[in-house]
């Protein structure tokens, strides 16, 4: 990265968890940045109408903000997960990435499981919380590992790239350098909720690598620390006082 930074101002499209994470430090005064934080939020979605809605909205935004520097889009780290690479959602996200790449000053951030305050019941952590809080049985893949990052940390890291004019037309992973087994995540959630989980363990899942070399450097610049207690801190932060 170089020292030529942009003011953090422009337009945020969206009203969900990702969009809200940027608003406290983002000025919607005249600026060049466009952060597109909208679209299909359910990774289990199979409805073509939902995918078409995002495609149309994103196409319109790319045309409207053709001069944006940069135009930011959020993809998914599941693009390299062999368990879900062929699902309609991941295939859709990859198609949207290709659409964004037509913009002359784009940035694509692929994200893992993002922890934060959201009513979306389809996130991994919200799903686990609901099942554990209600003592409902669920299935855990014994060989699966998942990457968890706090939405606030994601936004801090992303800002390092967004405001640096030398970082453009690239796809970057913003993720935790540690992948947790799903059983580890369940145990952290049990502590946060204060109740034991009721689950069936099945011999499924795979391990895949997320390249976080550049994100790790940006995290250091942003003051983000992925400590040994990161998972428990994140689950405690967002789920520890809900029951």
Q: What does this molecule look like?
A:
It is built from eight helices and eleven strands. The protein has about 240 residues and is of the alpha/beta class. The protein has a single domain, classed as Rossmann fold, CATH 3.40.50.720. It has a five-stranded parallel sheet with strand order 1-2-3-4-9, with helices on both faces. Strands 5-8 form a two-stranded parallel sheet. It has a two-stranded parallel sheet with strand order 6-11. Strand 1, helix 1 and strand 2 (about 35) form a beta-alpha-beta unit. The mean pLDDT is about 95.
Alpha carbon gyration radius: 18 Å
Based on CA inertia axes, which overall geometry fits?
globular
Q: Beta-strand level of the residues, as a percent range?
A: 15-25%
SSE pattern, N- to C-terminal = EHEHEHEEHEEEHEEHEHH
For the termini, the CA-CA separation is 44 Å
Give the class-level CATH name: Alpha Beta
Number of strands: 11
Uncertain segments are none
> Which class do the helix and strand fractions yield?
alpha/beta
Mean of pLDDT: 93
Helix proportion range: 25-40%
Strands ordered across the widest β-sheet: 1-2-3-4-9
- What is the name of the CATH architecture? 3-Layer(aba) Sandwich
- What would you give as the CATH superfamily? NAD(P)-binding Rossmann-like Domain
What is the count of distinct domains?
Answer: 1
Biggest sheet architecture = 5 strands, parallel
The CATH topology label is Rossmann fold
Tell me the number of helical segments per DSSP (H or I, 4 or more residues long). 8
């Amino acid at each position: 990265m170089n020292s030529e930074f942009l003011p953090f101002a422009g337009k945020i499209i969206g009203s969900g968890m990702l969009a809200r994470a940027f608003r406290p430090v983002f000025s919607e005064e005249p600026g060049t940045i466009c952060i597109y934080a909208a679209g299909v939020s359910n990774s289990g979605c199979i409805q073509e109408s939902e995918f078409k809605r995002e495609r149309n909205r994103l196409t319109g935004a790319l045309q409207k903000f053709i001069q944006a520097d940069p135009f930011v889009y959020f993809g998914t780290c599941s693009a390299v997960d062999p368990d879900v690479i062929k699902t309609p959602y991941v295939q859709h996200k990859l198609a949207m990435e290709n659409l964004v790449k037509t913009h002359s000053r784009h940035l694509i951030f692929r994200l893992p499981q993002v922890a934060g305050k959201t009513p979306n019941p389809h996130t991994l952590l919200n799903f686990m919380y609901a099942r554990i809080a209600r003592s409902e049985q669920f299935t855990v893949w014994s060989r699966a590992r998942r990457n968890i990052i706090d939405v606030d940390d994601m936004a801090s890291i992303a800002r390092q790239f967004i405001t640096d004019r030398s970082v453009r037309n690239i796809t970057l992973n913003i993720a935790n350098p540690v992948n947790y087994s799903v059983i580890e995540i369940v145990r952290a959630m049990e502590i946060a909720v204060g109740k034991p989980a009721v689950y069936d363990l099945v011999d499924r899942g795979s391990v895949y690598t997320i390249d976080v070399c550049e994100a790790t450097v940006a995290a250091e610049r942003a003051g983000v620390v992925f400590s040994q207690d990161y998972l428990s801190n994140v689950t405690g932060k967002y789920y520890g006082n809900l029951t």
